[in-house]
């Protein structure tokens, strides 16, 4: 039996899914698809399919969790049993508990929690189909859903990963590259305030590689931000912008 | 001369910025302006915190939000449901993350005594009331009062819930939209700033037509020519000068509505004052 050698980057510089090293996967965001939630978003980030629902500000239950000076932010990241090729146990795993925490901490600096004391904001991130980089896709969608819910925010949060694959720094690492590559670095970023709210690194990078990786990831976040903006504009101002265009044309 | 030039520049800037669509984090303008509502000031620039439309006046900059839940504001007229009572006050659900309280003294007067007066005789859980928010500063639950004209228990009607950010659109310019609906369907519509409406009519058909119109406005609030489409839905002819006179008559007949509307306008102004 021979072991199959995987070429993560071919001689033309193309990756396994045909992308260049500085290219994002296709991203599509739909805003407000869950009517029962105060805000919601559905994101397709490559093969990732994630639904995010935001509820709140609403009353805190149990009451003792309420903070007198600010809002409680609660976040649940969950992968559905059918999201991966082998069935995933629906009970929250160690990994999901951790990702719930990092998503919450990535979003917290953007939300003006002091505006809603004694209340709670709940964010539910449900992964329907996973393909590497689901925490970044989750943060991106959660930020759009928060804006849709009309929660006061200092800035949007955009997230994107970068990594080291076959000794090259690449943008937006997918599932195979994550598993076979050398390093994976998810970054969440406030694009207008220019602040990093999440930075994780799985793998080993030299100092120069780290800097290049971070710059690449931030560049990716800025591209993601443009897509987030388009999605929100489409939902809220879509009709008016088209009618304005029509009026000026007439 | 120089000052005049400055003013012209500001007018142009105002024109440019007014009605601009913004998303959270967007820089609206740089410079020494005063933040009023749904904006923050950071490093000499005004940043939007909500999805909405910019409104810039001489007193500052605000964003009219297009989404969000109801957060109480002082002097808002709200419609709520009594959910519970203690011996001294009622608890009222006002469609917000904060539940409101109506003290018994407000209804019974200063000499209220829990031993002598039965609080449930006036309002019992399940009753729907129109009330004004007397005090609210986010650190404590809002306090309600019924001490105003046309406030109190609502005896009958159909309750409709809409997004509170759509209320100004539902009322329309100087109440035009809501009057169109009321006249066409022969109903009375009470509006709470918290997104709760009560429609009162003689028969089910007119009430359900009014509700249909309200729901249409909620869904299509951000589109242009909405008034015209509502007129088509309700089979109302285009308004002529004579109709305007009728409108005014109706306004005087129905003082509660006008009150609510005035309060709406006041509510905006009051908020600005609060944030000063």
Detailed description of the structure:
Chain A has helices at 94-107, 134-148, 175-180, 207-249, and strands at residues 27-31, 39-45, 48-59, 72-79, 119-129, 158-165, 168-171, 183-190, 195-199, 202-203. Chain A is an alpha+beta fold and 250 residues long. In chain A, the strands form two sheets. Chain A has a five-stranded mixed beta sheet with strand order 1-2-3-5-4. In chain A, strands 6, 7, 8, 9 and 10 form a five-stranded antiparallel beta sheet that branches. In chain A, a hairpin with a 4-residue loop joins strand 8 and strand 9 (195-199). Chain A starts with 26 loop residues before the first strand and ends with a helix. Residues 242-250 of chain A have low confidence and may be disordered. Chain B has 276 residues and is an alpha+beta fold. In chain B, the strands form four sheets. In chain B, strands 8, 9, 10, 11, 12 and 13 form a six-stranded antiparallel beta sheet that branches. A four-stranded mixed beta sheet of chain B has the order 1-6-7-3. Chain B has a three-stranded antiparallel beta sheet with strand order 2-5-4, with no helix packed on it. Mean pLDDT of chain B is 82; it is low at 242-276. The longest helix of chain B has 21 residues, at 255-275. Chain B contains nine helices and 16 strands.
